[in-house]
């Protein structure tokens, strides 16, 4: 699959909507000031695949889906600010907002990333297979957990890397 080229906020928001509630490691996000690029790596369960399910529907169950690495690269980046009060490394994507000079990526866990652009949006969205990686969902009655990503090296010692953005103090 060829990377998707994104050239407007609407296209960016639409591409990122595929990643709603998908886990990502803040530690693996990278801002290259010299190149003017920000790269975010998300773990997207393949909902289009039926996956494997076990258990009794609506009582208790476990559902496994294959996972891809969704790689979002934003160009023309002037600066990046991260507000990370939780300091937990792994987050899930909630929403994308337009800001006066760029994009805000909000997580479900009280963290956001402000990407300040020098010009209009220029980005790519690419998906790479993660062989052996699975998204595990568990349910009990009407309560669902997850996804917990297994087999992607996230739980190995040192699997999260180092923090690349110093947290921005809250004012």
Key phrases:
171 residues; mainly beta; N-terminal domain of MutM-like DNA repair proteins; eleven-stranded antiparallel β-sheet; 1 helix
Describe this structure in words.
It contains 1 helix and 11 strands. It is mainly beta. It has a domain at 4-47 and 68-130: N-terminal domain of MutM-like DNA repair proteins (Alpha-Beta Barrel). Strands 1, 2, 3, 4, 5, 6, 7, 8, 9, 10 and 11 form an 11-stranded antiparallel sheet that branches. The N and C termini lie far apart (43 Å). The model is unreliable at 156-171 (pLDDT under 50).
Short description:
Helix content is 5%, strand content 58%. The chain is mainly β.
> Assembly state here?
single chain
Report on the biggest sheet: 11 strands, antiparallel
Helix- and strand-based class? mainly beta
Please state the average pLDDT score.
Answer: 83
Share of helix, binned: under 10%
Low-confidence stretches: 156-171
Shape: elongated
